[in-house]
Amino acid sequence: MAGLQEYKCPCCGGAIAFDSSIQKMKCPYCDTEFEMETLASYDEQLNNEKPDELSWDTTAGTEWLTGETDGMRVYVCKSCGGEIVGDENMAATSCPFCNNPVVVMGNFTGGLKPDLVIPFKLDKEAAKAALYKHLEGKRLVPKVFKDQKHIDEIKGLYVPFWLFDTDAEADINYRGTRVRTWSDSRYRYTETSHYLINRAGSIAFDAVSVDGSSKMPDDLMESIEPYDLSQAVDFQTAYLAGYLADKYDVGASESVERANQRIKTSTEQVFASTVQGYASVRTESSSIKLYNGTAKYALYPVWLLNTKWEDNIYTFAMNGQTGKFVGDLPMDKKARNKWFLLIALIGAAVVFGGAMLFNLLS
Known about the structure:
This protein has 362 residues and is of the alpha+beta class. Helices cover 23% and strands 36% of the residues. It has 2 domains: 1-48, no CATH class; 51-128 and 156-328, no CATH class.
């Protein structure tokens, strides 16, 4: 005996059944009614959905040539394990991730040579000025964040990125709603109509970036985007002089999942923007196929300062090309309490002074 077809309500996802009193399918959870033919067509369209095809050629970077890494040193943080690259003339420095001292481990070896680099366009003074401006007027920020010696520790860091180029073909179904309201002398009525909307087409993506460092949170790096890749140049070790470079520990193939997520989300948003005239629109299903997908290895400039406060790390990061930054700041509870006490004392003084003046004038 063949199994019974079970339909899900397009509105709430609940199981729906045939209601003989109205000769329609009805959802017992949201009371929405459906014509049988409409549901069958809806179900057929969703069952024809194709799976995503997300494949890549993740060959990126090149092998270092003999002599190219001369003068480059590897610095390792004994506290967090961060591994960075600098030149042989770099003085003693601290880890850009946790601020603990780092030690020189020897000559740089292994890894891939970047294809591209975006040189720093904004210097250390510009980064410090942006940080001072960010702190301006924030009375309740702990003093350590405003300490000049600490701010002087801000570091220019080249962060490794994998850049993904691809063409995408998409077939996406959206669920749209239109709402109609009216009233009579007794009731107010609301009618919500649901529509299945299809969009299909192709779109190209250039340089979808995913950072290749496990020490740098993806959302932090994405928050200081975009970078202007038109200013990227072929990599040369000379660009590292005076700066640190984070040594990648997440490969291109390991970064594909993040790239796919960004591409899929962006594709659905772009296609959804073409759906007009509805009260709401959300993705019902999507099928995305990627082709001609390739990856490149690049270094992007970032000004970075990590501050430890009450066992938490707070990060200031600035795009070294455009100046866009993010800064997470805590509140000093002791300073807050003192501030509230001062306001209370001033308020009490004003009330007391007003009462004295009233008594004198009475």
